[in-house]
Amino acid sequence: MSTTAALAHQLNVFAYVEAGVVIVESRFSNGNPPQVGEVSVLDGQGEPLMLLPLESDGTVRFVLDPAHAESGLLIEVRTGEGHDNYWILTPEDIARGSGS
């Protein structure tokens, strides 16, 4: 596979908190959202909290449990065929988005 072909399939993940809701956005490097996939949410110690399906627009939203705000969250997006990536929401990121 050429470098160009590999980059064309890179998965970009971004997550943030807005008004107590975690919003996860995923897109391939060409701007298209993945059509299928799942999001694993883990706490700051790597313990699984939930597994959610991606929406057709490549997003997922869930209410932030305040108990997990202090340790941060690891958000992993898997779309199959090796297209995986992650985002770390730090306690500082969470506090900023929660208005704390």
Helices, strands, pairings?
Blueprint: H1 3-8, E1 11-18, E2 21-28, E3 38-43, E4 48-53, E5 59-63, E6 73-78, E7 84-89, H2 91-98
Antiparallel strand pairs: 1-2, 2-5, 3-4, 3-6, 6-7
Structure description:
With 100 residues, this protein is mostly beta strands. It has one domain (3-98): Sandwich (Immunoglobulin-like). The chain is 14% helix and 45% strand. It is built from two helices and seven strands, in the order αβββββββα. A four-stranded antiparallel beta sheet has the order 4-3-6-7. Strands 1-2-5 form a three-stranded antiparallel beta sheet. Strand 1 and strand 2 form a beta hairpin. The longest helix is centred in the last third of the chain and has 8 residues, at 91-98. The protein starts with a helix and ends with a helix. Mean pLDDT is 89; it is low at 1-6.
